[in-house]
């Protein structure tokens, strides 16, 4: 890499390779799970690359052979409970922070390519779905398992990417699917061997950089506007309100069991329990 801005952040690494900016989610001990700080740093990193005149394409990936296990459930359930004084506002802030990043990726004036290895779950899956293109390793898994513990996807991007029937199947069951199935239904543009993931993402990015930046900007905006005219953004805002309503459907014992698994058995055990 020609240049690195990794010293700016604790949970995100930013590297520059010629005219490509590479952002790496970097909480490897927590499976790159999304906490408040990572969300804030990622938004800022995207904004900096958007305003860097030397950068034409952005790649978003994760460290330690994992994109992200989704929201940091330990942090979330320690700070948010249905028995708090103002739980709806705390939950709203959590969902809004995830949606803010999804929309930043969607609206970014430069193409964003996701390079996905390992898990991309929940809010992290939404970020992948918000990217313009996505390449996966052959070990990648993606899904929105939130419904298994009574929650809604933070950003309801999936129906816009995979269509009505498949979106309902995945969101009703909370199933986590492998890279080949995700490629088949249009989530990933390409699946490559794990060892070639980043290099293949860079090859695609370099191909895109040969196109006029102004043409890319206009084309991305035009394609996105087509979906926005079908009320994509209004649908995402409605989903946020639905997600807040769903929060209050959860029972006290559900919270207690989630906390128990995470504290006693760890995040990996919790993820396994959701996929069983």
UniProtKB/TrEMBL annotation:
InterPro entries: ClpP/crotonase-like_dom_sf, Enoyl-CoA_hyd/isom_CS, Enoyl-CoA_hydra/iso. GO terms for molecular function: catalytic activity. Pfam families: ECH_1. GO terms for biological process: fatty acid beta-oxidation. Belongs to the enoyl-CoA hydratase/isomerase family. PANTHER family: ENOYL-COA HYDRATASE, MITOCHONDRIAL, ENOYL-COA HYDRATASE-RELATED. This is Enoyl-CoA hydratase. The lineage of its organism: Bacteria, Bacillati, Bacillota, Bacilli, Bacillales.
């Amino acid at each position: 890499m020609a240049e690195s801005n990794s010293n700016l952040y604790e949970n995100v690494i930013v590297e520059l390779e010629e005219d490509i900016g590479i952002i790496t989610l970097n909480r490897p001990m927590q499976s790159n799970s999304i906490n408040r700080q990572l969300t804030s740093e990622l938004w800022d990193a995207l904004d900096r690359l958007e305003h860097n005149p030397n950068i034409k394409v952005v790649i978003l990936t994760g460290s330690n052979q994992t994109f992200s296990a989704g929201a940091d459930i330990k942090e979330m359930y320690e700070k948010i409970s249905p028995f708090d004084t103002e739980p709806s506002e705390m939950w709203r802030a959590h969902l809004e922070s995830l949606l803010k990043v999804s929309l930043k990726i969607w609206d970014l004036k430069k193409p964003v390519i996701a390079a996905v290895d390992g898990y991309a779950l929940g809010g992290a899956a939404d970020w992948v779905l918000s990217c313009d293109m996505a390449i996966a390793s052959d070990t990648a898994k993606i899904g929105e398992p939130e419904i298994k513990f009574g929650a809604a996807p933070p950003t309801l991007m999936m129906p816009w990417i995979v269509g009505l029937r498949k979106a309902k199947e995945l969101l009703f069951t909370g199933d986590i699917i492998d890279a080949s199935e995700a490629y088949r239904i249009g989530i990933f543009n390409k699946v490559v061997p794990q060892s070639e993931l980043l290099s293949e993402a860079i090859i695609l990015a370099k191909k895109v950089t040969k196109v006029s930046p102004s043409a890319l900007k206009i084309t991305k905006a035009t394609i996105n506007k087509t979906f926005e005219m079908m009320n994509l953004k209004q649908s995402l805002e409605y989903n946020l309100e639905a997600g807040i309503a769903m929060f209050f459907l959860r029972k006290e014992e559900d919270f207690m069991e989630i906390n128990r698994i995470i504290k006693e058995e760890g995040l990996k055990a919790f993820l396994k329990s959701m996929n069983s």
